[in-house]
Amino acid sequence: MAGSGVFEEIIEGDVFKYYTDGEWKKSASGKSVAIINPTTRTTQYKVQACTQEEVNKVMESAKIAQKQWAKTPLWKRAELLHKAAAILKEHKAPIAECLVKEIAKPAKDSVTEVVRSGDLISYCAEEGVRILGEGKFLVSDSFPGNERTKYCLTSKIPLGVVLAIPPFNYPVNLAVSKIGPALIAGNSLVLKPPTQGAVACLHMVQCFNLAGFPKGLISCITGKGSEIGDFLTMHPGVNCISFTGGDTGISISKKAGMVPLQMELGGKDACIVLEDADLDLVAANIIKGGFSYSGQRCTAVKVVLVMESVADALVEKVNAKVAKLKVGPPEEDCDITPVVSESSANFIEGLAKDAKTKGATFCQEYKREGNLIWPLLLDNVRPDMRIAWEEPFGPIVPVIRINSIEEGIHHCNASNFGLQGCVFTKDINKAILISDAMETGTVQINSAPARGPDHFPFQGLKDSGIGSQGITNSISMMTKIKSTVINLPTPSYTMG
Q1: Contact, 221 vs 50, CB < 8 A?
Q2: Residue 86 to residue 67: CA distance in whole angstroms
Q3: pTM of the entire structure?
Q4: What would the pLDDT profile of 146-175 be if each residue is shown by its tens digit?
Q5: H-helix or E-strand spanning residue 481
Q6: Is residue 246 classed as helix, strand or coil in its secondary structure?
Q7: pLDDT in tens, 429-441
Q8: Can the peptide bond before residue 453 be classed as cis, meaning omega within 30 degrees of 0?
Q9: Of 92, 87, 86, 39, which Cα lies nearest the Cα of 329?
Q10: Which residues are catalytic?
Q11: Closest listed residue to residue 202, CA positions, set 177, 188, 228, 220
């Protein structure tokens, strides 16, 4: 149960504490932030509403702790990460419970997220030891006009304090995807969890606390974005920001100053279906890609661009599968569960109403109860409809019928997003050509868009982000190159 057993110290009364200096603390503000259960639409948990002064103290502690952590041997850093991973997986049940209550993630998927997060931390520890254990040795005479009088030794060194801001839909997994690389690289880490998902993150941080990481190295600060959001991202003590979310990331990138940024800001992932595609495979992937976790995934299928000649057959197959989706509460492992908030549900409904007004074909009746929206396939969607371009983050999938491959590619590339896309065809030559033409960070061939496995590169073009994620890329991004040059009095050549 949340807040019990080894997690008992992270809560006092009905309010969860924040974490800094190796201790769980109450905010001096005396205020809390309510976390609303998407299913019941009532307050489920409360977290501390931290102040700007408390942010200052957290940053100072992180800066001091990082200096000592940078002197910790790589094998020791990895050892502690492996320990945290084991503790996290051991206590998957209470953390998964938080995900069910906070973000209405189906129970089975919630457990999967926690276990996957433990695996990510362990993989990160192993990869970090290998990547950071190697440097480069350069000699000067490889450049024209130089004798061999200089030896250059290069290595990767930490950036300092990394600010990690994960999203609500994968609050644990996308937190550890930032925490693991930051720590193995020798950085300290300040975590600002999303409001929905904050308690799951606090439980996860306790697993790092129990693993024995040094005081001040990891902090988790909760509060209202309106009060501490900009203060955190613009804080002079921050040396790197890793953010996953929506439009807020664009605002952060404009204000952050001269610090490295890692941003993943959503997508409008297109699914291009050619005439020779296996339509049963396509239908299964539209269901998995478009409706899993009620479509609340950056890599969800968000628009289907299907050749007119096979559109009727594909829509029929998808509709048959939509009819079998189980709709209800996350505790019952339903396929479609409530979306995260009332405002999100209202936004999704607005997209549906716009499509209805402009003549889209509703393959199912639009149905909503509170935050629960039934799965909906929209056929005959046109480019003048909002749903053709905007990211619903809900269980609605639009179908646009196309008459040529070029038409599909044009629609994909006309989007301001460029996260992922997919193409279904039996012709690998066409698949490669289309993949090259699609302006997205990743293209999946004959499968729905997906983030992962977690060591795969994950990046977006255009408004979908800055930089690249994936364990190896994240470790590299959270370090910088340090060079030491040895100057010799006379040229020296091996075996010369």
Answers
A1: yes
A2: 26
A3: 0.97
A4: 999 999 999 999 999 999 999 999 999 999
A5: strand 479-487
A6: coil
A7: 999 999 999 999 9
A8: yes
A9: 39
A10: 264, 298
A11: 220
